[in-house]
Amino acid sequence: MKTFITGASGFVGSAVLRRLIEEGHTVVALVRPSSDRSNLDGLPAEIVTGDLTDPDSYAAALVGCDFLFHVAADYRLWVPKPDEMYETNVTGTRKLILAAAQAGVKRIVYTSSVATLGLNSDGAPADESTPVTLSDMIGHYKRSKFLAEAEVKRLVKEQNLPVVIVNPSTPVGPRDIRPTPSGRVIIDAASGRIPAYVDTGLNLVNVDDVAVGHLLALNHGTVGRRYILGAQNMTLREFLTEVAIMAGQSPPKVRLPRGLILPIAYLVEGWARLTGSGEPLITVDGVKLSKKKMFFSSERAEHELGFRPGPVKEALRSAVNWFQQNDYLR
Question: What's the N-to-C CA distance of the chain in angstroms?
Fold first, then answer.
């Protein structure tokens, strides 16, 4: 089995890559020229340097591949140039899948996100069928992933392409080298830099369980169908408390109203744009997203794929330990 994967140098992608190797796949990994490749060190994978938006850089490498895992995405909650995110997440996805179809790839697993799904106003766990529209998407990341998933569904329907969609929740665990937005929260909580919280929630899952879910989708998923890969719903306070205790820090005790944080987020973002200092710790989209608890159910994946995620507490401990060992906690 020869398998092509994008995003293999990243957090989720590197976990999927490792799982593919364990399952005996011969892997070809597409990596951008600027990517940190430390997650690939020592792994038996063929590396192709290219860009999602330039099919000429990877089309030849797709020939002869049986499967494609499209894991790569521009995942940021704040972007100074939003067009770049849409170009990668939407246009790049369309170009890659069409190139894979042209190369004769037999089956494709596309990594979407729970960010594209609807939410319940009462905080009850949402699922793949919870109503949602583009107008519900807050921020460019969610909008771009929503549009990308819609494009994938269109290609499946109009061109009969063999794509299965997975929607991971919030993965946690080792090898978050960038780190992701959720990884940054773990770092800050483990460093004692989050003394307060807002009343919101999220679904957490071990990144290695997400990788297993990807292969289950390849082997058992229904074409055109999407599957939530999540595990445990936790309030933000519970999440931050677990991390703080693991790192020997004091858990946050103060609950902050969103009305107080939102003006601060606008100021912090403005300063980041003015100075070019990078992604701010607090973002306007992040505050707006906290209005609803992002709780989800993985019942469909459990029943149809055999997805069985493990305890999230162990994944959080692995994440904290990995960040400590790699000098992220300062």
Answer: 43
Here the CATH number for the domain that contains residue 91 is: 3.40.50.720
* Tokens describing residue 176: 């978050």
Extract the tokens encoding 195.
């003394």
Residue 61 lies in a domain: yes
Distance CA 97, CA 152 (A): 8
Q: Are 5 and 20 in contact (CB under 8 A)?
A: yes
- Look up the domain containing 163 and give its range: 2-173+206-231+295-310
CA–CA separation, 240 vs 156, rounded Å? Answer: 40
Contact 3, 27 (CB under 8 A): yes
Query: Per-residue pLDDT averaged across 123-151, rounded?
Result: 96
Average pLDDT over the chain, rounded to whole?
93
71 in Cβ contact with 110 (< 8 Å): no
Q: Is 60 exceeded by the pLDDT of residue 167?
A: yes
Distance CA 281, CA 299 (A): 33
Is the pLDDT at 266 greater than 60, yes or no?
no
Whole-angstrom Cα distance, residue 242 to residue 43?
A: 32
| Cβ-proximal residues to 34 (8 Å cutoff; 6+ apart), any chain | none
User: Helix (H, G, I), strand (E, B), or coil: what is residue 161?
Assistant: coil
- What is the reported pLDDT for 132? 97
Residue with token string 């003015």: 274
Is residue 191 included in any domain, yes or no?
no
Q: Does 133 map to a domain?
A: yes
Question: Would you say residue 122 lies in a domain?
Answer: yes
Q: Which of 170, 171, 173, 168 is nearest to 316 (CA)?
A: 173
State mean pLDDT over 98-111: 98
The Cβ of residue 52 has, within 10 Å, a number of other Cβ atoms equal to 25
Task: Give the torsion through C-alpha atoms of 91, 92, 96, 102, to 10 deg.
Answer: 40
Contact status, residue 9 vs residue 39, Cβ threshold 8 Å:
yes
Give per-residue pLDDT as tens, 144-163.
Answer: 999 999 999 999 999 999 99
What is the domain count for the chain? 1
Contact between 100 and 68 under an 8 Å Cβ cutoff? The reply is yes
Structure tokens, 115: 């960010």
How far is the C-alpha of 193 from the C-alpha of 227, rounded, in Å? 35
